[in-house]
From TrEMBL:
Residue intervals of the ABC transporter domain: 6-236
Entry keywords, A to Z: Amino-acid transport, ATP-binding, Nucleotide-binding, Transport
PROSITE patterns: ABC_TRANSPORTER_1 (PS00211), ABC_TRANSPORTER_2 (PS50893)
Family of the protein in this entry: Belongs to the ABC transporter superfamily.
GO molecular function: ATP binding
Domain of life: Bacteria
Gene3D superfamilies according to UniProt: P-loop containing nucleotide triphosphate hydrolases (3.40.50.300)
Name of the protein described by the UniProt record: ABC transporter ATP-binding protein
Pfam families: ABC_tran
Length: 238
């Protein structure tokens, strides 16, 4: 695990004094896509929030490139190269796409223009809508704006909380294609997904969470092939 870009070691975290996640350990290497799957209430979002600095860890450590980020404010975690896209309220709906991207570049004002250009090359559809309020876009387009805002930080790791939630099947496929595209630019991805099969299809590795603990970590192909995992967490392939 020492070569991991992001290391999560024995992390316990939750809300107030109550832990929801217990002793979670995982790593994300440079260039990897890792999907976290598991039933509702397993603690997936809670763990992601702790990694992003939104929640405090009651135990354990989180490191990015070897530097401890556990219990540091989200702004510092972002400056160290980790961008977080929450499941909800991930764009400013009253603001235009352009304004959202500019706000996303807060970490380094000097690079807003060039980073914005890179985001627009990645998501050309957004260029047409630069002057449109994010609230007037489709759910899929809005998700691209949220990715775009996160990429304005020029992250080495992108955390995505259920990026396909609420999207039509066509948009779900586009969203996963976008995740692959972002990853191909060298950004590692740690994402939570209910669409477990599709997520594992584009992932290098998968993490199974249940009851606040990490139950299993394996290559995505191994999880997809496992009868146990399939029966418990994947449902049937469409
Ligand atoms: N803001 C909160 N305050 C207190 N408890 C919370 C809060 N959010 C979640 N929880 C508790 O943490 C548990 C785990 O929630 P979490 O959102 O991490 O699960 P999840 O695996 O991401 O599942 P889901 O897909 O339902 O979001 C929930 O069952 C709930 O009891």
């Amino acid at each position: 695990m020492s070569e991991a870009l992001l290391e999560v070691e024995n992390v316990s975290t939750g809300y107030g004094k109550i832990d929801i996640v217990f002793g979670a350990s995982l790593g994300v290497a440079a260039g990897e896509i890792v999907s976290v799957i598991g039933p509702n209430g397993a603690g997936k979002s809670t763990l992601l929030k702790a990694i992003a600095g939104v929640l405090r860890c009651s135990a354990g450590d989180i490191r990015i490139k070897g530097e401890t980020v556990a219990n540091r404010p989200p702004s510092e975690v972002a400056r160290l190269g980790l961008a977080y896209v929450p499941q909800e309220a991930n764009v400013f709906r009253q603001m235009t796409v352009d304004e959202n991207l500019t706000i996303g570049g807060w970490v380094d004002r000097g690079h807003v223009r060039e980073r914005r250009e890179r985001v627009l090359e990645l998501f050309p559809d957004l260029r047409v809508h630069l002057g449109t309020r994010a609230g007037n876009l489709s759910g899929g387009q809005r998700q691209m704006v949220a990715f775009g805002m996160a990429l304005m930080v020029a992250p080495s790791v992108l955390l995505l909380d259920e990026p396909s939630a609420g999207l039509s099947p066509k948009m779900v496929a586009e969203m996963f294609a976008a995740v692959k595209k972002v990853n191909a630019t060298g950004v590692a991805v740690l994402m939570i997904e209910q669409n477990a099969i599709q997520a594992l299809d584009i992932s290098h590795r998968g993490v199974v969470m249940a009851g606040g603990e990490i139950a299993l970590i394996d290559d995505a192909s191994a999880l997809l092939a496992s009868e146990n995992v399939s029966e418990l967490y994947l449902g049937t392939r469409r």
